[in-house]
Amino acid sequence: TKMNSVIILVLFCMMRSSSSLNLFPRLSNGLFKSGENAESLKRNILELSRKVNRGLTETAEDRENMQKLFGKLEAKNLKNNTLTNPALNGVWLLEYTTSDSILGRGSSSSKVGPIYQTINTINLTAENSETVNYFGLLSVPRKVSATLRVMSPSKVAVQFQRFTIGPISFQAPVSFKGELDVTYLDKDLRLSRGDKGNIFVLTKFKDL
Q1: What is the DSSP letter of 105?
Q2: Do residues 115 and 203 touch, judged by C-beta distance below 8 A?
Q3: Other C-beta atoms lying within 10 Å of the C-beta of residue 59
Q4: Sorting pLDDT into bands at 50, 70 and 90, what band is 35?
Q5: What is the DSSP string of 117-132?
């Protein structure tokens, strides 16, 4: 009927108007593309991390892909109060980083086996531990302890306190400090950004 035709025309005009005003931007910017959920992003990040040996063997393309995946998973962290999340406390295994010093690039020593980071937000302490092989001859355990100071709901200032290399232990210089922003956190995976622009991917090894 004529009345039905008028109603259909009005509805059509309303739909076009809504589209032109972009009332549904989340649908138009690709955030809900297939395969973009947190679990698939985590799986892709870990697969790439292990493919490039924590970052040691990555190509420029690998790093670009990791940066994209990293940013997409960070965007899933709707509540950025990661420091109050109990899941942060524990021993974490480093899966990937862009830090040359942590990876041992350009050094006479190489990292052997896993690299761990222990975080305790109750007493605001942290510890990094690893085993380093010098000149292909001698493997030595090495660790550094640090104290943390809360800067924001997701970021801490890191003051390194003590280095231990094998049986030798010594105080860290006061200038050895940094910052760490925990940008994504769940019960088994953590993403962090350092103050020098490096990124870190870690999986939970065990709880405290």
Answers
A1: T
A2: no
A3: 9
A4: low
A5: EEEETTTTEEEEEEEE
